[in-house]
Amino acid sequence: MKKISNLFVIDDDKIYHFLLKNLFKQNGIDVASTFFINGHDAIEHIKTNPSGEVLPDLILLDVNMPIMNGWQFLEEFNKISGSLAKKPTIYMISSSNNEVDINKSKEFDGAVKGYFLKPICKEDLEKIFLY
Length: 131
Known about the structure:
Helix content is 39%, strand content 20%. By secondary structure, the protein is an alpha/beta fold. The protein has a single domain (6-129), classed as Response regulator (Rossmann fold, 3-Layer(aba) Sandwich), CATH 3.40.50.
């Protein structure tokens, strides 16, 4: 698997955070993970240091969250991405299998690399980490 040193997980489900940490461990994925429960907290964290020190290599982004959902995060992220020292790869990971959501993720083609349904599995992780 490709080495990802820093990862942001933006998802309001803390049980999912726990399960994802275990899935990483079980599959030998050693990555520094920062967890956010909404898009607003994550975007503010990114804005505090756009020089690259806090920027992740990879973002796993949920669609449905309170305060700022995944779509709103992407809109804000696109506004600031030009000023960032590096551009993280973003994957949408959601329990929504609604075609509207899946197709909407394709509208963010420059930012969103792919869309996976929860719960993600070992095969999904291999696709994500082998990008």
